[in-house]
Design goal:
The chain is mainly alpha-helical and about 280 residues long. The chain has a domain at about 1-125: Tetratricopeptide repeat domain (Serine Threonine Protein Phosphatase 5, Tetratricopeptide repeat), CATH 1.25.40.10. About 65% of the residues lie in helices and about 0% in strands. α2 runs parallel beside α4, α9 runs antiparallel to α10 and α12 runs antiparallel to α13. The longest helix is centred in the last third of the chain and has 28 residues, at about 180-210. The protein is elongated and about 85 Å long.
Amino acid sequence: MLITPQFQMNTRSTSPSVPKSLLATLLLGALALGAIGCGASRADNTVKYAVTAQENYTKGEKKLEKKAWVGAAKYFAFVKARFAYSKFAVLAELRLADAEFGAGHHLVAIDGYKMFTKFHPTHDMVINGYCAFRIGEAYVKMLPGDWWLLPPSHEKDQSATADAHRQLTTFLKKYPKSPYQEKALARLAKINWRLAEHEMYVAKFYWERGRAMGTVIRLRKLLESHAGTKLDAPAMYLLGKAYVRVKMYARAKEVWIKLVETHPTHSKAKQAQAALAGLSG
C-alpha cells in the first residue's frame, strides 16, 4: 500500500528549512513509499522541496503527469502538512488520492475521495462530480480479469462489479451536467455487460440442474437491472422456457410476446413464436 508520509506541523513558518523531526518523518515516509515495489512507476520519484506551497504543489502535479506516484505523494503530503492553511493544502488532499489511484491502490484512493467529499462538500471538484466519478473508476479498475489458467471473469465473484455499477449509476443521476458523464456512461456499459453475463451464467447453471425457479430469479434480475445488452433476447427466451417449466404459462406467453415485439429479427424471436404456437395449441 502506498502510505502517505506524515509531517510534523509548523504553522508559524513556511520556510524551506526542515527541522530534524520533520527530516526523520520524511525518511520514514520515503521508506514506506518504497514498499509499493513493482506497483509503482519507474519514473523518477526523487523530490526537492521548494519554498512555497504553490511551488511544491506544482512539482507534485508534474510528478503525477509523469506517473511518478511516490514522488507526487511526497510533495502533496508535504504541502498538506507544512502549509495547512493554504488553498493548495486542500488540493493536495485530492491529489494524494489521485496518486494512490495511479499506483493501483484503489481502495485507498476510494477512501481518499470519500474523505475529500466529506470535508470539502462545496469544493468545485466535488460539485462537478470528479470525486464521485473517480470512485466509480476505482471500482472498475478492481474488476476481476480474464486469464487463460483461471475461469472467465463472469464466473468469478462480482462484488467489485456490483459496487462499480451502483457508484456509476448514482453518479449519473446525481451529476447530470458533469463533464465526466460520457466517460461514466462508457464505463457503465462495460459493467452492465459483465453483470448481465454473470446473471446469464448463473441462470444457465440452475437450468442445467433442473432448478427452473432459480433460473427465473436470475433472468428477471438480468432483464430488470442489466438490460440493454445482446443477452436480452436469449435471456427472454430462456425465461419463457423456465416459466413453462414451473407452470407459469401466462408469464411465459407475456415474455415471449415481448421478445417478438422488441427483437423481431433475432433468432430467439423465431423460436419464441414457435413456442407461443405450442402454448396456444
